Amino acid sequence: MNTSTNIAVLGYGMIGRVHSLNYRELPFIYPRLIPEPILHTVCTSREETAEAARREAGFLHGRTDTEAVLSDPEVEVVDVSLPNSAHRPVIEAAMAAGTHVYCEKPLAGTLEDARAIAAAVRASDARFGMVFQYRFVPAILRAKRLIDEGRIGRVFTYRAEYLHSGYQNPERPLTWRMKKDEGGSGALGDLGSHVIDLVRYLLGDFAELQGNLETFITERPVSKGADERGPVTVDDVAWIQARMANGAVGSIEASRFATGTLDDLRLWVYGEKGAFKFDLMDPSFLRWYDEGTAQGTYGGDRGWQRLDTVSFYPDAKTPPARAPIGWIRAHAENQYRFLKALAGGSEPAPGIEDGLKTQLVIDAAERSSAAGGQWTTVETE
User: Average pLDDT for consecutive 10-residue bins of the chain (381 residues)?
Assistant: First the structure.
């Protein structure tokens, strides 16, 4: 195993900062289990921000030329933390150069770009990993095991939602997340991609769906305090009713307009032998109901249990397993699993198929909504 891995981070917004922080901390969480991540290069659009990011995170280099970063033979991994529309050209270039890629969700702004990225990944010897960090909350890992062990049995229904607030302020200025040519989609891709992936991870592929997208505020200031206003060209809220390939049916909601919410990702799954529910605002626990528990006087022992999943990660040295789980820790685990796969020569999971499958669901929801909410088949490729 190599002793280190040189990483370039493209984009240094909030997510780029989170990824950079975790690369620095992984050797403390998993000492000597993966090559040491080296923050080699950070790339932003302006020299002053590149230099500020370099100093802040301790990168060796700060650059503004993406092509120069992608052609640097010292760079072994490119972390793509850019707006969705910018993913395709940098990933195609990285794959052509044989450079591994770690890509923020969603895979791309459009299905056309997602398919082109998938083709580039499949034609390359380089590895590709996706960011779907909620897979790596221990409560979700525990839920996955319950399903795989057959303790849920046949799944009948599910409900998933990811709710944010803040966009309901009409004076919030336009950003790339509100423009279709840069973000691809709004709440559907930004928040919905996470719950779409979680449902797929736990229950398998989508078969067909009915999608409805709504944009409540259609114009916003082009910048903070500006009188000039520009169009919002993506959804504010997305609703999906879906049928899975295994016959389960359920609903998904993604909203940036859920006044009073913070980071409210919630999931309910109901099966013939059991059920579980998860709440990201109470992430250290999984609620579990076992239909097989004996009934008796006053209900016996049957009822909802709170499973203490907290920070139980195999082989992690810090924080202790009893510690409450945090949002950043799930990101760190996603990054660790990616780097561990590279070191072991295996395919990262989540990977390109997971990114493409999620994009196919996003595309089906957009097509369904455009057709008045009619049931629409989710393409398989």
Answer: 94 97 98 97 97 98 97 98 97 98 98 98 98 98 98 98 96 95 96 98 98 98 96 98 98 98 98 98 98 89 95 95 96 98 97 98 98 98 92
Q: Which regions of 259-352 does DSSP assign to beta strands (E)?
A: 264-271, 274-279, 285-290, 304-308
153: left (phi over 0), alpha (psi -120 to 50) or beta: left
Last residue of a domain, one of 93, 116, 133: 133
Alpha-helix runs per DSSP H in 71-216: 87-97, 111-122, 138-148, 180-183, 187-190, 192-203
Q: Is the pTM of this model over 0.90?
A: yes
Domain coverage including residue 90: 4-133
User: Tokens at residue 225, please?
Assistant: 């305090």
Same domain, 181 and 88: no
Domain count, the chain: 2
How many Å apart are CA 20 and CA 16, to the nearest integer?
Answer: 6
**Sign (positive or negative) of CA dihedral 52, 53, 59, 65:** negative
In a domain, 161, yes or no: yes
In 10 A of CB 28, how many CB atoms?
11
CATH value at residue 209: 3.30.360.10
